[in-house]
């Protein structure tokens, strides 16, 4: 163990003037407070030079810039994120359009003089001689100056055609089928006007809706068509018969001269 005198001799030999022990030293002299006090840094006042001297002085040299150290960064791949793979069911749902349920209706085509009449069959069954709807149709033909015993042409057109299968039986297919059926009959025997009685007849033959009732519709491939409410609707709402009669008087010239 070093004594205080020998410790100072070693420190002087190493040119150590001030030192502080990390732990309390045995047999050491007490520390002087003046040595433990940290002196405050001296602040030098800036020296202001005259304006002339400042102008004549050389420009101060720029401090040397610290060299930039390039840090390698991880590169980001430019490839787009891969899309998730869809399974077979999801792919089929994206590709296949939504199926529209096929419309359901039954239509009967008749000929009365120089007119063809496409009538909705509400029950889906052919007309019977004593059906109230058929009696109303006979009254309308008689008022129009046409034979009141129309000729039935073919079997009723019923849609959909098939109960099962993959055949497209949507609204567009139904329209094409009905119009094609009528065009074939017109090629056999033309007519001056085609009556469309009932909403299915107006929709799938005349390409219109109930807003076209009592009006004349020019349809490509079918000629002039007259849109009328269904026979059941005319019996349920008798006030509509007046509109039918008013429209009939305007259109009667199309077929009446040939029958006189």
How would you describe what is shown here?
By secondary structure, this protein is α/β, with parallel strands linked by helices. It folds into two domains: 4-33, no CATH class; 105-259, Uracil-DNA glycosylase-like domain (Uracil-DNA Glycosylase, subunit E), CATH 3.40.470.10. 33% of the residues lie in helices and 15% in strands. It has ten helices and six strands. Strands 3-1-2-4-6-5 form a six-stranded mixed sheet. A hairpin with a 2-residue loop joins strand 1 and strand 2 (115-120). The longest helix is centred in the last third of the chain and has 18 residues, at 171-188.
Characteristics:
260 residues; alpha/beta; Uracil-DNA Glycosylase, subunit E; 2 domains; six-stranded mixed β-sheet; 6 strands
The H-and-E topology, N to C, reads as HHHHEEHEHEHEEHHH
The major β-sheet equals: 6 strands, mixed
Number of strands: 6
Q: Please state the CA-atom Rg, rounded to the nearest Å.
A: 53 Å
User: Helix content range of the residues, please?
Assistant: 25-40%
CATH class of the largest domain: Alpha Beta
What global shape is seen?
A: rod-shaped
Query: Counting H and I runs of at least 4 residues, what is the number of helices?
Result: 10
What's the CATH topology name of the largest domain?
Uracil-DNA Glycosylase, subunit E
């Amino acid at each position: 163990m070093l004594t205080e005198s020998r410790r100072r001799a070693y420190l002087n030999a190493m040119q150590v003037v001030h030192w502080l022990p990390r732990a309390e030293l045995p047999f050491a002299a007490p520390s002087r407070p003046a040595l433990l006090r940290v002196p405050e840094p001296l602040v030098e006042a800036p020296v202001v030079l005259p304006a002339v001297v400042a102008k004549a002085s050389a420009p101060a040299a720029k401090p040397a810039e610290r060299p930039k150290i390039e840090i390698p960064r991880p590169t980001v791949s430019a490839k787009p994120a891969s899309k998730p793979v869809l399974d077979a069911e999801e792919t089929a749902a994206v590709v296949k359009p939504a199926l529209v349920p096929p419309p359901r209706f039954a239509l009967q085509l008749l000929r009365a003089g120089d007119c063809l009449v496409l009538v909705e069959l509400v029950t889906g069954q052919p007309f019977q001689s004593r059906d109230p709807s058929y009696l109303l149709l006979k009254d309308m033909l008689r008022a129009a100056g046409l034979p009141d015993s129309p000729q039935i042409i073919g079997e009723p057109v019923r849609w959909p055609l098939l109960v099962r299968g993959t055949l497209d039986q949507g609204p567009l297919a139904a329209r094409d089928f009905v119009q094609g059926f009528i065009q074939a009959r017109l090629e056999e025997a033309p007519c001056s006007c085609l009556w469309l009685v009932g909403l299915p007849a107006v929709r799938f033959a005349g390409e219109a809706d109930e807003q076209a009732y009592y009006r004349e519709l020019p349809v490509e491939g079918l000629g002039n068509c007259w849109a009328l409410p269904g026979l059941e609707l005319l019996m349920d709402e008798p006030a509509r018969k007046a509109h039918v009669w008013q429209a009939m008087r305007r259109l009667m010239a199309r077929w009446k001269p040939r029958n006189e």
